[in-house]
């Protein structure tokens, strides 16, 4: 999923898309139906990129993008206004090793409401541009085997010689 440029702003509900940056801060647009514009001042507002957010885990922190991937595969997602017990049960499905003491019900509600905003957007189903696809790592062309005699007959390629600037000295 491509969450590049999607941020959460402290003190503001919902999610925002970074459109541009000026000398005072960032120009943001809300992801809800109203498409509200906002200039977030860097000195007063705290921005958190969704692609960088993690959730407290028992052993290691869990990336929010991994939780969203698990939520895609979940059978039913509770309402963000559901009680804490239902949210906790759901979170044990999508993030089984989250830390119960550090992940509060308010955090789970926020993550579920973010998921509800993002799931219908086309960027949610796009591949992440920062992660190289697995197919790119494997060679796609079929290499033909080269006989041993052919490689022995070929001379090793010489390294290109560096170009030097010719200078002429005048005879005095």
TrEMBL record:
Region called Disordered, residue ranges: 127-172
Protein name: DUF5606 domain-containing protein
Domain DUF6852: 53-118
Top-rank taxon: Bacteria
Positions in coiled-coil regions: none
InterPro entries the UniProt entry points to: BVU_3817-like_C_sf, BVU_3817_N_sf, DUF5606, DUF6852
Feature: compositional bias, Basic residues: 162-172
Residues covered by the DUF5606 domain: 3-50
Organism: Mucilaginibacter pocheonensis
């Amino acid at each position: 999923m491509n969450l590049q440029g999607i941020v959460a702003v402290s003190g503001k509900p919902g999610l925002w898309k970074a459109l541009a940056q000026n000398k005072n801060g960032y120009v943001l647009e809300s992801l809800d139906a109203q498409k509200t514009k906002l200039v977030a001042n860097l000195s007063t507002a705290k921005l958190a990129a969704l692609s960088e957010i993690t959730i407290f885990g028992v052993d290691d922190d869990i990336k929010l993008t991994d939780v969203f991937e698990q939520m895609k595969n979940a059978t039913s997602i509770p309402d963000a206004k559901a009680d804490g017990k239902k949210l906790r049960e759901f979170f044990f499905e999508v993030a089984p090793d989250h830390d119960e003491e550090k992940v509060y019900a308010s955090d789970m509600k926020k993550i579920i409401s973010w998921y509800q905003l993002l799931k219908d957007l086309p960027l949610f189903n796009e591949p992440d541009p920062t992660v190289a696809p697995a197919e790119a790592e494997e060679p796609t062309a079929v290499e033909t085997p080269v006989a041993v005699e052919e490689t022995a007959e070929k001379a090793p390629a010489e390294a290109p010689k560096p170009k030097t600037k010719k200078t002429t000295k005048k005879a005095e």
